[in-house]
Each structure stands twice: as structure tokens, then as C-alpha cells.
């Protein structure tokens, strides 16, 4: 018959396969700084385990242990279990991973050393893979890389030499903007679209696969009137955020909070109508009202208890100040202060910056602030580009730091932008001086949620965010000159996401379309 | 400030809210046979627990315990935790659920009694909710219903009387067709589209929310040539199926296997070319070859060890027999036997039925078999309608059983069919005699996977499958005459799926489109 009797109870083993002709067959995404390929297939032992001898990091809070458990989950849930009908020779049996972490702490902060070395040499008895990392977070990345090397040996039993790989110190930060409701459960008002905690957790899991970090932005800040909320709901919101942050942190994912002012904050006035210029002219926030800044101070004070990341994002984009002139009270106030709409906008942004600085944050602001009054911005400001290309060049020339998100290439909600465009977007374009290159601290792909809710968030993000992840992680000279050279490898990553239950879209469509017909995920 | 200090460590409680004006505010989906509404809000205790005194079922395999753990997961992960700043009065504190199951066994089979009573009376000290069910599977349904009653008390602290509800013995079966690869991991060939185990598990979870069962269909049956597979991969496939079946069974979800013959089986010939009429004319399976039936016997023998459900589905649809006449060998064989294409098709289907019966199965066949030779079908045959309306009427008149899946209303891959159409499709249309009504054993919504892979399977299924679920579960006189009367309740269910991380699509689109603009999931 076609199937043999089911052999439950026998020793079962995972197979660890390395492709035979690097780099074509090394399906790691994003590609590490350096990879050396072996030629041996190792089998994962049934009692595959974690060893931490000589590690300075003691894992009191279980971050490493949990990461190892997730590794086992992901490689076993991924259809990779095979029943081995014979005994596997000790010389090809991988008994576990030996992790050595060189520093004690587990603080997750901007600039934390996330590099690692992963060596899988088929030597020793028993054989262990070896991870060496400066911090627990580098070790987590190494486990993700390891998981991508494990798969079911379908085509061949050929043994290939084991590989070692190394990701150096260089890295660039990366974020995804998600629009979140501050107050979950409010039926009528959410921030564009409700994103549920289980889905955000799922997105965080998948971000860890691609080694990304997260940016939560465009908060709605509501109060009781609009959906019957009372103070206690704010406690609920804090609890929600703490859960989210805890979940992300244990996966090595930083959470950056973005609080856009004075624009994109109209919803705050639903709870606090005093923040609106008037009932009929509702944004930007009232620049003339002390309460506006008292509230920003309160929010940032609360934020500082939750979000310990070095930066806070204060927005400053798309501010149409005409309501200020149309509202007599504000017009008079500006006149008194000798301000016009443009200088009042500057006044607002700089005042908000000062508040954030007083809470220990460095500030990120959207590029409009730089374009209008770049010289006045606090020198610790990071300018966030979005309007198009060529901005980073200007920002770093002015000695400020920059994050690149040019919308023509890195906005996920632009559904006509294909993964190749995401891959080819170079944040350092035309920036050649090393000291200026250092000022480009990273890039961010943005998923603005007008047309994104729980039903389509995953396929909007993936696989295109992965293309940007490689651009941000991989050393420039290892990046493909032609994105089509990495189609096979990124399609492998897309299938890996699918295998792990993540709804990553087909690659052969620009946005998040359905597959055009029957076929393998490796070819679509 | 807006947020108070974070009050960790205080007693926290879930709130259980019942709507105040039934049935409008009872957001249970699908609606039970009878619901009686109370007027009291109960708070879920921090140490909410499961009690099983007096239960005949002993839960040796932990099905109930796991179901209760999932209940806790789903209500706590769902943003429903609230910090209670005072002490909750014992008179409104729900301490747990007392489950009484009247039968010992846990066999999951067609016709198993899935009814339950769920009473949440605010009486007793401490107060327990009460579930009484004939079987463990009725109790699992009751826990799902309970989970839908728990939510964060957003609008009001008003106490409403607790409600009791009851789902009677009546039910109709329900299935979703999924196209699965038999051999996971094969890179080039899958059954239309690869569906990964983690995603199928997620779909099973969501099916349990809507109280559905599953039909796995259109297997690919491959062998080594096409992707380097060897025998051991079949073991892997069995393991894969067993995992899936175990996972489903513990959630009360039956798995029905569908093995379409002689059509829709072209892929088998990739592994066994002898099954093709010829290399250039590859389907249907060769009716003249003994090996064809030997193979079907082998597969069904294997199936019978895995799938213990009373039925197996043998297909029989869309058979274009012209290859049989075009292939000299088969043409000669037919001539010898005195068969033409039409009677050879009948010969094939009836022979396959006999094989299935010999393995203890009752057989489901697509309606073409009934349309061509209904009188010859085994009397245990269940005829599966798909071509359009009015078929069930003919089938039950002929004394055979029927499953309804008319493609114009219950095919999920028809993206222009809206949820209202799914809701209004009545399997008993024009069937008035009770003994004939009994022969309509259920309905099935089908998700054929030409354009469905991991990236869009969830939004293709939900929320439309839920509309059909209510049609199949709810007693006819409780069903809405106008589907728009239940828009609010089904949108609530869609949001519940979103809250639980399921990518259910907006309701205000016919298929699985993206939200048209910002807005609440309750309104889209």
C-alpha cells in the first residue's frame, strides 16, 4: 500500500538541512553579514536542548528560555517532524544549542548590541550548535536564524558540511507604524481601524522572524463622552500597552511611541473639546490654550513610565493651521504674541519638544518641521523623512539625525509599490561621508491604516516589509544589485511565514492581492 | 493627569455583561434555540474555576480542561481585563463554571448529541454558572457561548439580570471544504494552494467559535518522482493528518475526508502514471485498470485507520469521460464489457462505493452521480448538491439523504456572494414532509482554493461562513426573515473574530475586500 503502518512511538527527529551551493541555497532572510556554508546535514535530536555554560547572562526572567521554546514550537509546528526508522549516527546528531551571552543585563534600548555568531560545526560528542552574542537580544536573533536553517529534508539525504555564520555589529534600526486604538473596546472610535491585541502579537511574532522593531503611532486619546468611558478605561489601556510592550520586549522588539501634535490629534477633542480651536474647526490642537500643553505633558509623563525607549515621536506633519486664524480667540492670541500661522506652528512644535526633553526623551519629528524651521529644532531631534527622496541628504548635511521612510518606496499602504521597490530603496543614497552616514540612524516602513484592519494587516505588511528589512540589516556590499537575484530567497521567506501561519501575500503581485491561480507558494 | 498611576497587584476582575434588551443586545452567534435574558451584570472572579461535581464524564484525556483553559485565554487575551479598584460584592461575583456532562464517552461521531443548557443565575454563594450537556462536545459548545457573553463593560455599570440559555437537540451538520496538500513541504506541487498546519489550526479554532465541522477535500496523492519524495514522506503526511485530526477533535470538530474519483485526481498520476488513460490524456482515472481500484482500496484502508467519521466523500463530480474513448486500450475494454462512457462512469462510481462500504464507511457523492444513475446508487449514499437550487427536493423524494452546497449561495470562493445571501439559503426549501426534511442531513460551505492560500483564507471564510452556520444551527422560526435584522449581531461576531486575531473581512463588502475607509469594525 501507499502508506506504511503508522509508526508512533519510534524515535523521531528533525532534520537540519543546509543548502549545497551557497549563497543560492542559503535561504536566510535577512541575509547576515557573513555566511560560511558547510556540506553536512545534521539531524535534530529528539531531546534537543539549550546549554548556557559560561554565559554571563543568567536569564532570571526567562527570556532566553522562552525564545528557545518558541524555536522548538516553530520548527516542530512547521511540518518538519519526521519519523526516523533507524538510529541516527551520533556524528550527525545535533544535541542542542550552546548559547554564550557576554553581558549580564537585559535592557532593551536603542543601540543595544544585537550582533551574534552562530556556528554549527559537526564536531564534538555530542554535537552542539554554538551561539555567541553580546546581549540576550543578539542571541534571540541567532535563534531566529537557526530556525530558518531547519527544514524537512525533502529532496535529498545528501550530507552537506555544516555552516557557520556571523552578523557583525553593523545594523540599522527599523520600525513599522501601526495605528492603534488607545482604548480598546470602544465601539465607534478607533484610530482609523481597530487592531486587536492577539493580531498585534501575531504581527510582533512575525516581525521577530524578520528582526524588526515596532513603532506605535497615531494614538486616539479619548475620554468618556464618546463611548461611555470613565477613568478606569484608561487603566485598561495602560494594562493593554504594558502587555504589548512586555510581549515585544521578550522577543527583542523595541516599542517606540508616536504622539502626533499638533495635527492628527483631532480625536483628542472628542474627550477634551477645549483642545479644538472650535466645534466647527477641530484641528490642529489649540496652540493658544495652556491646557493643550498640560495635556501633552501629562501624556508624555505617562508614556515615560511605560515606554523606556530613548526616543519619542512627536509628529508635526501635515499641519493645516488655518483654523488658528479662523478662530478669533486664537487669532487674537497670535497677534498678542506677534506670531503668524507659520511661527505659531514652530512655537507649538518647539514647546512640545521641550516637554518631551524634560521627560528624558530624545525627539523624532516629521520632516515638515525640518523644512520649515530646521535650524530651530533641538539638536537632539531626529528628522523623519516621508515626503520623498533626497531629504536624508539635506538633514545630515545640517548635522541632524534622520530616519528614512520616503512614501514613494516605503509606505506599505501604497499597494502599487512592489517588493522590488522596497528592496532597492537605499537610505544612504548620495550620502558618502562616513560621519554623515552615521546620522542616518535607520529606516521605517509605514502601514497607515485607512484600509488596513485585522482582516488584511498581515498581507499588507508581508512580504514587502521583509524586503526593507534586508536593506536595513545587510551590509551594503552584500545586497543584491538586482532584486530579482533574491526572488528565490525572499519567496522562501514568504513561504516560511505562510508555514508559520502568517498571511504573507504572494510575491508576484504588487500589493496584497490574492493568488492569481493554483500554484506553489514558492512560485507565487 | 489623564491616566492614574498603574495599579498593578490589585485584585482584577473580568466583567460579564448581558445586554439589556433581548434579543437585540444578546450578541451570540449562531443564536441558540432559546435564550432567556437576565438583568444583572456579574464580575468574573480572579480565580475563576471549573467545577465538575456530579459529571459522569471524567475527562481522562483533558478535553474539558483544555476547553476551559482556552476559554480563559480567549476572554483574557481579548482586552477584557479590568482593574477593579474596590472589592466586588459577593452577590455579583461569578466564581466559575459548574459543568455536568451526562455521558461518559468522548467519541466524536456523526449524530453525537451536541446540545447543552447554560444557566447563569446570580444565586448561590459562591455563584457558579451551570452547564448541562449530554456529551463533552455539547459542553464545549456551551463554553463557546459563554465566551461570547463575556466582554469588557464599557458603557455602563448598570446591573442586568443574568440570563439562561438552552440549545436543544436539533442541529444540522456543517462543513468547510479545504484543499490540502497531502504532502507538506513539496515545493512545486500542492493541492491548488498550500495551507499550512498552523493556519489550518487557526481556522479550526475559529470554526469552533462558530460551531462548525471540517471537510478536507481534493487530496493530492503524490509519489516520489515529482518532488523527490520517498516513502517516509507519506509517514510524514500521516503524522500531519493525525495532528490535525487530534487538534480538531479536542475542539469538537469532526474531520471528514473527501477523495474525489474518478475526476479531480489527475495529480495521482504524477506518482502513478498507470492511473492516467495516457500521458496526453490524463483524466479521469483509468476505469479499465485494476490498479486504479487497488489504489483506491489502499487509500480508503489507510483513511479508515485515521478518519473514523461515519462518512467518506468519494466525489464523482465534473467527470469528462472523453479520454476513455480516446484511449484505445480503454475503448476496447469498454467495448468488451458492453459499456459506453456514461455507463463506465456509473461502473466506476459504484465500484468505488462498494470499496468504501467494505471499509465500514457510508458514502457521500456529488450530485452528478444522482443525476446520472440515482436509482443505482447504494441506498446509504448521501447526495451532495452543488450545481444549484432545487436538488435536495429531488434527492429526498427519491429517498436518499442530501447535503446542500448550492454554489450560487454557499460557495465561499464566489466572491460576489454576500453574507446576506449565505444567511438566506434555506436547505429545506420546498421540503415540507418531516420524514423528507430529516433526509437533508446538513449543509456545507465550500472554499475551493484556486485563489485562496494562507494569505487570504481567513477573510474568504469569515464572516460569510458564520451566516451559513446560523442557518444550519438555529431553529427555523428563530431565523431572521430579513438578514439585515441581524447585521448588528453578525458584525459583533465579526469583531469578536478580529479581537481573537482572526482576519474576518468587513461585512459591508460582498467578498473579502479591504475596508473602504477608516471606521469601527462594528460598522464595517
Automatic annotation (TrEMBL), chains A, B:
<feature type="active site" description="Proton donor">
    <location>
        <position position="318"/>
    </location>
</feature>
<dbReference type="GO" id="GO:0004563">
    <property type="term" value="F:beta-N-acetylhexosaminidase activity"/>
</dbReference>
<dbReference type="Pfam" id="PF14845">
    <property type="entry name" value="Glycohydro_20b2"/>
</dbReference>
<dbReference type="InterPro" id="IPR015883">
    <property type="entry name" value="Glyco_hydro_20_cat"/>
</dbReference>
<keyword id="KW-0378">Hydrolase</keyword>
<dbReference type="InterPro" id="IPR025705">
    <property type="entry name" value="Beta_hexosaminidase_sua/sub"/>
</dbReference>
<dbReference type="GO" id="GO:0016020">
    <property type="term" value="C:membrane"/>
</dbReference>
<feature type="domain" description="Beta-hexosaminidase eukaryotic type N-terminal">
    <location>
        <begin position="28"/>
        <end position="149"/>
    </location>
</feature>
<dbReference type="GO" id="GO:0030203">
    <property type="term" value="P:glycosaminoglycan metabolic process"/>
</dbReference>
<dbReference type="GO" id="GO:0005975">
    <property type="term" value="P:carbohydrate metabolic process"/>
</dbReference>
<dbReference type="InterPro" id="IPR017853">
    <property type="entry name" value="GH"/>
</dbReference>
<dbReference type="InterPro" id="IPR029019">
    <property type="entry name" value="HEX_eukaryotic_N"/>
</dbReference>
<dbReference type="Pfam" id="PF00728">
    <property type="entry name" value="Glyco_hydro_20"/>
</dbReference>
<protein>
    <recommendedName>
        <fullName>Beta-hexosaminidase</fullName>
        <ecNumber>3.2.1.52</ecNumber>
    </recommendedName>
</protein>
<dbReference type="InterPro" id="IPR029018">
    <property type="entry name" value="Hex-like_dom2"/>
</dbReference>
<feature type="domain" description="Glycoside hydrolase family 20 catalytic">
    <location>
        <begin position="244"/>
        <end position="474"/>
    </location>
</feature>
<keyword id="KW-0326">Glycosidase</keyword>
<comment type="similarity">
    <text>Belongs to the glycosyl hydrolase 20 family.</text>
</comment>
<keyword id="KW-0325">Glycoprotein</keyword>
<feature type="signal peptide">
    <location>
        <begin position="1"/>
        <end position="19"/>
    </location>
</feature>
<keyword id="KW-0732">Signal</keyword>
